[in-house]
């Protein structure tokens, strides 16, 4: 069978992921940025490791030591999740780590809520859905996990969501943005209907769209559309909005890559 | 019919396999013989989004598409072509729509065949519509409509029947985002295989009744999901060593179609098809460098190595500088086939096969495992316990780990992250039981509790 020599192989392809890999392991990188507080550190570490039971144990210890459960959401859980999302953004850890950490964080938030009579304050609300007629929801599930990991309250409408249900959710929840995902060219047309009905009702909020067959040209055709090429763009668009960039044209300048 | 399990390989060695030649060629459509010594372009397309608004618009769109393709094939002098229509959901949910499209397409193809003698066949890939908004609904009313769609299309002119079925996807989607190798094995290898046995027994019976060809199924819903999430070299969403494990596990799952009466050609997006060809000897369609219109992959040349039909996956119908998209892409596919067929006619096919394979062999762990010599080894691991759907899927995964590890000891470079993901997966596989009943019981308990959209009754539990 034909084969390369080591030298000839290098003329054919380059494994850039190997060539550019960071020297530090994920665990070492996380250790450098964990909070130092002895009650918060084990919670943040348990979030990073995606260990739900250890998160609860750490929270219980902190509450026993006098910490306010609701304050712990921001001061411990979100700090731990911040380590995770930062390392993901830097390319040091991969998406499954984020998903497992997000699961652990959500368990932690529930535990904090159960141990308090006040409600937590989030960074804002985002309404997420999969286009009407489309049942492919893995992309939407990634988007919702990443939004929650970044401190947003998510109203997850699920898949194959009728246009009117999206509009009603916007009216009821006053989100800072709506996300829509679709796999198929034939279902993504529902995005335009969502856009038109939002405008008709007077809601000029950004509508971040992405997934399978969706592309920047298509999303740019409707007034509220902002194209997100990666699921990880969703929390970044939300962050830009709460930082004051609510204008769709400016968001497009920032996030449209093509 | 009951599944007739494969416990041996169709080919005595990997080197016997080439493109354009299969052990069991398939006659289909208008004078076409697939896997009988020549490769065939298989063009796939999607209507423009607005075409789905009515049945009449949809039929008109497919008539334009079909005419454009047939016209271009004749204009450039290509002797054979397959058209693949992947149903948009309206065509499978309303079987009469799918049937009318099939009839309209076949009428045009017959005209070209009558006038020019061009050999051709029409594949209809029915949409797996067995779900509602909240859950998969693999059995019951939706299943009846699903089967009706196959039968109506077969009666109306489709020659090759196919589907990309979704059994096990609810568990797989959960597992793949959590590096959960046992869940991937359960979703694809066990749940997927159970569902495949049900549907392919029925689809094969429809093909027999209608004189059409039960062609095959791909694990697009799961293994391709893993491949797409894995993305390119710099994407950080899934280790490619896990994506290739999903692929290896998908082979015994997609094999079930052929164990229940399908005869090929397996559908284009089944990158696992090279493993299945090694086991069954049946012809397979593949896609790679010519499917960049639909998605990127890391084995665009390699995957041509043993194809019998060569596809573009899908392209939206619209205009380009060189004609409509279906004209441009069918011409590209047909030129690739002309090169492969030239190699076959001049007895240079093994040289070209090896050039295709070698150009991508070390590009990625996914291409490394699917190189025909390694794919053959995965096939051997599957048939070793061919009678046990769990063990053969586990064997495929273990063999895949071994192949990547052996490669990494040589010229296959792995990132530290990929190597760790592989080591973790191998460790997880090593602690799994050998007893299928225990594995199934453990997984049923675990995923019923963790995956809220998992309904065991979908699988007859």
TrEMBL record, chain A:
GO cellular component, one term: cytosol
SMART domains hit by this protein: B12-binding_2
Coiled-coil annotated spans: none
Entry keywords, A to Z: Cobalt, Metal-binding, Methyltransferase, Transferase
Pfam families xrefs: B12-binding, B12-binding_2
Domain B12-binding N-terminal: 30-124
Keyword hit for Metal-binding: yes
Molecular function GO terms recorded: cobalamin binding; cobalt ion binding; methionine synthase activity
One GO term (biological process): tetrahydrofolate metabolic process
InterPro entries reported in the protein's UniProt record: Cbl-bd_cap (IPR003759), Cobalamin-bd (IPR006158), Cobalamin-bd_sf (IPR036724), Corrinoid_p (IPR012741), Met_Synthase/Corrinoid (IPR050554), Meth_synthase_dom (IPR036594)
Keyword Lyase found: no
Domain B12-binding: 123-248
NCBIfam families on file: MtaC_Meth, pyl_corrinoid
Family stated for the protein in its record: Belongs to the methylamine corrinoid protein family.
Protein name: Methanol-5-hydroxybenzimidazolylcobamide methyltransferase
Species name: Methanosarcina spelaei
Automatic annotation (TrEMBL), chain B:
GO biological process terms, semicolon-separated: methylation
Keywords, ordered alphabetically: Methyltransferase, Transferase
Domain of life: Archaea
GO MF annotations in UniProt: methyltransferase activity
This protein's record includes keyword Transferase: yes
UniProt xrefs under NCBIfam families: MtaB_Meth
Protein name: Methanol-5-hydroxybenzimidazolylcobamide methyltransferase
UniProt organism field: Methanosarcina spelaei
